[in-house]
Amino acid sequence: MKCPYCGNPEAKVTDKRDSDDVGITRRRRECLKCEKRFTTYERVENIDLMVVKKDSSRERFDRAKVIAGIQKACEKRSVSVEQIQKAVDEIEADLRQREGNEVTSKEIGELVARKLKGVDKVAYIRFASVYREFEDLESFRKELEKLIRK
Fold first, then answer.
1. 17 contacts: CB under 8 Å, gap ≥ 6
2. Are residues 90 and 56 in the same domain?
3. Which residue has the higher pLDDT, 44 or 115?
4. What DSSP string describes 39-101?
5. How far apart are CA 103 and CA 87, in angstroms?
6. 54 Cβ partners below 8 Å, 6+ apart?
7. Which of 8, 61, 81, 121 could form a disulfide linkage to 49, CB 3.0–4.6 angstroms apart?
């Protein structure tokens, strides 16, 4: 494992944690040269998950896109990187437990919205306004009212 700071190929593992629910191993490492610490994640490589988009085209599931969407919704909010990572881990695990290897972009969006609702309500509204394509203030107001009622 190369150090992301100095590029040295030698690092020692200082802490290892397995996550039973999503099959990921988290390792804290320390570079043997510069002594800086960094975290790596190891996950089992699964068969490609295909996303069926609105226009019926298909593309590989891209975890980075899900992370980017959640990060955008959580900008300037007190949501940690770990919370985002955990949410994406859970979303991906849920998708991979389903039958078959195809999932619609709508299903992914609904899972992201559900996770964000539990993490940060403002981030949820930001995501929902883009994902659900609110076209006017009335749509936005209705979603806010639903959120407030719950």
1. 25, 26, 27
2. yes
3. 115
4. EEEEEPPPPPPEEE-TTS-EEE--HHHHHHHHHHHTTTSS--HHHHHHHHHHHHHHHHTSSSS
5. 18
6. 105, 106
7. 61
Q: Are 124 and 58 members of one domain?
A: yes
Judgement on whether residues 8 and 63 belong to the same structural domain of the protein:
no
pLDDT tens-digit profile of 37-96? 999 988 776 678 999 999 999 999 999 999 999 999 999 999 999 999 999 999 998 998
Shared domain for 29 and 87, answered yes or no, is no
Element (H, E) at 109: helix 105-119
**Does the pTM of the predicted model rise above 0.90?**
no
Residue type for position 74? C
Number of domains in the chain: 2
